[in-house]
Amino acid sequence: MVSVASRPIRKVLIANRAEIALRVIRACRARGIATVAIYSDPDRAAPHVHAADEAYRVGPAPAADSYLRIDRIVSAACRAGADAVHPGYGFLAENPAFAAACRRAGLVFIGPPEEALALCGDKAETRRAVRGAGVPVLPGTDPVDDAAARGAAERIGFPLLIKAAAGGGGKGIHLVRQPEDLAGALRLARGEAQTAFGDPRVYLERWVEQPRHVEIQVAADAHGGVVHLGERECSIQRRHQKVIEEAPAPGLPEGLRAAMGRAAVAAARTVGYRNAGTVEFLVAGDEFYFLEINARLQVEHPVTECITGVDLVGWQLAVAAGEPLPLRQEDVAPRGHAIECRISAEDTEAGFIPWAGRVSDVLLPGGPGVRVDGALAPGMEVTRFYDPLLAKIVTWADTREGAIARMEAALREMVVTGVPTTIPFHLWALRHPAFRAGAYSTRFVEEEWPRRLPELRAVAALAAAVLAYRRDRTPLLPAQDAGAWAAWARHDAVCRADSR
User: I need a labelling partner for 58 at 20 to 30 A (CA). Which of 205, 309, 419, 423 fits?
Assistant: First the structure.
């Protein structure tokens, strides 16, 4: 059942941290809404804590669990007298149990209904639902047992992907190139799915060698209104995580763009969506295929805001309060081009190894067409508990070439010392001929980035796994060899020494 707030939202608790918490605080302030922050012990002095009107401690060590404590977060919201809870992205943003707990406590959950969250959290069920609405999906299966998987794999053909039915965020995915590798990959995928999501079901899907990853921003209200706000190109990724996004997608034929927009709206309607969300697609030539629905605000939402003039968080607040969407589809008029670079504390030359330590000096860029979303400040401690994202640099201009030029200037102006950052990678990528031509795929980083230390690729994966495990208890990747673990242990010791 869809519920709509029966009273104006006057106070919001933000169940998140860092830059997204600051983003929500600013949107609330613009609407005259009071804000409540939460924090773990390592975040006691974080910028989002100081920016909010009040703040509540929700957990001691292990800090990675603090932002996942539904009971403590809901209790803090009630003690503060909040009307609503905004989950941001990550942590509990797509957790139907959290949405349900908010509802039971009389709090408005600023996101989709718990029923839509549960459906979107099951990739296999979502595939089935949108396929029934005429949205194109890759050839594949519903969840299968091992015996059925063998026959299905022959029909689909190799290479193919095994995916966890309850997966998300690039987790639980295995590429199988040869039939003889299928049985072992199925066992591994089922074990990882059970550990990560408490659900061992997997399904098969055709593998596309050089796809583009293009997503459509959608918004829906409780009055039947659903619109899309155009697309974002998200193909530049490492470890299935995006590092550069742009809007609109370069070189996308107008007919394909329009068809993807209609498909995204159909998908949102089919799952009973409300609030802001993203429908993700793979693009192969002139064809596109549904991937998943991200039932939350995306990290890269600023590029859509820049080209549409829409405050997406403001829309979220309005929809949660029962208001209709302020624009109809025919009123949406994207203008210009926007690019976002995610600046993270990572050693890019060693395979994007996440880094921990204390930030010494910071100089942030500025000027016309430059936006900085972040919680970055001198003396800030980058810990191993959370994602190493430091800031998002977003540039806008009338043309793609102008947006690229502004981004290059902004990145050259930006200074962060004390920890390595991804700025050198971003500058390299922006100057790459494939990026300049807008002709790149999801394999861009894997195939083009000239790692100086390729032997540390396994270490990078282990580093990411350790961070993910400490953040949200997702499973550690299996060690490829003892040497990789030893190298990570040496790296971890260096981080600890640097952070003192």
Answer: 419
* Residue pair 343/394 in contact by the 8 Å Cβ criterion: no
pLDDT band, very low/low/confident/very high, at 493 (cuts 50, 70, 90): very low
CATH topology of domain 139-206: Dna Ligase; domain 1 (3.30.1490)
Q: Active site residue: 17, 274, 296, 384, which one?
A: 296
Give the per-residue pLDDT at 3.
Answer: 46
Eight-class DSSP state of 65: G
> CA-based Rg of the chain, rounded to a whole angstrom?
22
Cβ partners under 8 Å of residue 380, min gap 6: 358, 359, 362
Asked whether the whole model's pTM tops 0.70, one would answer yes
Burial class (CB in 10 A: 0-12, 13-18, 19+), 352: buried
Using CA atoms, how far apart are residues 215 and 498, in angstroms rounded to an integer? 39
Half-sphere exposure of 332 (CA within 13 A, CB side): 23
Measure the CA–CA gap between 430 and 408, rounded to whole angstroms: 7
Q: What is the pLDDT of residue 169?
A: 60
Query: Known catalytic residue: 400?
Result: no
CATH T-level topology, domain 214-342+356-448: D-amino Acid Aminotransferase; Chain A, domain 1 (3.30.470)
Share of the chain above pLDDT 70, in %: 87
